[in-house]
Write a structure and sequence with these properties.
With about 210 residues, the chain is of the alpha/beta class. It has helices at about 10-15, 35-45, 60-65, 85-95, 110, 115-130, 150-155, and strands at about 5, 20, 25-30, 50-55, 75-80, 100-105, 135-140, 160-170, 170-180, 190-195, 200.
């Protein structure tokens, strides 16, 4: 598949020659206290989106999206509950229509399931996203307890985004790296982003 799907974040789409190749799985790795959710919310404005929430309730996610100051769409939000999150997620993913977005937020809950079953889930997800020309984003929390299967997620993902948030003096800095871009060229430079009400490029100068 040669077509590109926009992320809705203009600076990133420019850097990626128009967006992300259709049929890709993206692992968005970020600290729990970051504003990574803005990436997910802006993505919903680009095309039809199924948003699977594994921590917060569906109502909480919907309310957060609707109150966001950034440009958003009207995603279908479902919370994954119960003792069989992989099975419940698989049923919803299998019905994903053509050229749609899928957001799994966060994927950590699934990464804590049995390794063979999780790998099978990701393989099925990869096949479905590729065959439908869609885009899947797995929100990976890089917190204090990273699941053992995180390596599996990053290895099987087509693209890895690493968002680092840090305090520098009186400023909060957000830096986005794209170390992995299967079938394409990873970015050789880190992008400074301004994450407030929207996602934009940070034009402030670094102070040594």
């Amino acid at each position: 598949m040669s077509s590109r799907l926009r992320t809705g974040i203009e600076v990133l789409d420019r850097k990626l020659a128009g967006g992300i190749p259709a049929g890709s799985i993206v692992a968005l790795c970020a600290q729990p206290a970051s504003q990574a959710e803005l990436f997910l919310y802006e993505l919903t404005a680009t095309r039809g989106t199924l948003y699977l929430s594994l921590d917060r309730t569906g109502d909480a996610v919907t309310s957060s999206i609707q109150s966001s100051q950034t440009r958003t769409g009207e995603p279908t939000v479902r919370d994954i509950t119960g003792d069989a999150p992989l099975d419940n997620a698989s049923k919803l993913v299998s019905a994903l229509p053509e050229e749609s977005n899928l957001i799994i937020d966060p994927v950590d809950v699934l990464e804590r399931q049995e390794p063979p079953r999780y790998r099978n889930f990701v393989n099925q997800l990869q096949n479905h996203i590729y065959n439908t020309g869609g885009l899947a984003v797995l929100h990976c929390l890089d917190g204090r307890e990273v699941p053992n299967l995180r390596d599996t997620t990053e290895h099987m993902a087509d693209i890895v985004f690493q968002l680092e948030t840090r305090v520098n003096g009186d400023r909060i800095e957000n830096r986005l790296a794209v170390p992995k871009f299967r079938g394409g060229q990873a970015l050789s430079e880190v992008i400074k982003l301004e994450l407030s009400e929207t996602v934009d490029i940070d034009t402030s100068r670094d102070i040594a």
